Amino acid sequence: QVQLVESGGGLVQAGGSLRLSCAASGNIFNINTMGWYRQPPGKQRELVAAITTGGLTDYADSVKGRFTISRDKNTINLQMNTLKPEDTAVYYCNIKLTDLRGRRVDYLYWGQGTQVTVSS
């Protein structure tokens, strides 16, 4: 099994900053990508940022230049600056890995979610 434990989040005023962290543990031998998704109220879950084992990063257009994802071993961090009210959402950590049979496992493992609320 894989466990993802998130920390950070909270309430901040527009223009402020927050930092999210996600620590992975368990059967995580072949990690492909770790990342953050978010789900605003009444909307679909969407990719925010992701980082591969090799350090390649990908960002949603709406957060480019404001958010930075980083990775230290099995922990990823999301530094969120210049936050906007539209960044309000529940943020989820995700891990994509390859299992012992060589199969990709992309959307099975999620963190518990952490609320980010940006007030105007």
**Counted beta strands:** 11
Helix/sheet category: mainly beta
Q: How far apart are the first and last residues' alpha carbons, in Å? A: 40 Å
Quickly count the helices.
Answer: 0
Stretches with pLDDT under 50, minimum 5 residues: none
Please give a structural write-up.
By secondary structure, this protein is mainly β. The protein is 0% helix and 61% strand. It contains no helices and eleven strands. The chain has strands at 2-7, 10-13, 18-26, 31-39, 46-52, 57-59, 67-72, 75-80, 89-98, 104-110, 114-119. Strands 2, 4, 5, 6, 9, 10 and 11 form a seven-stranded mixed sheet that branches. Strands 1-3-8-7 form a four-stranded antiparallel sheet, with no helix packed on it. A hairpin with a 5-residue loop joins strand 9 (89-98) and strand 10 (104-110). It is elongated, with a radius of gyration of 14 Å. The termini are far apart. The model has no long low-confidence stretch (mean pLDDT 95).
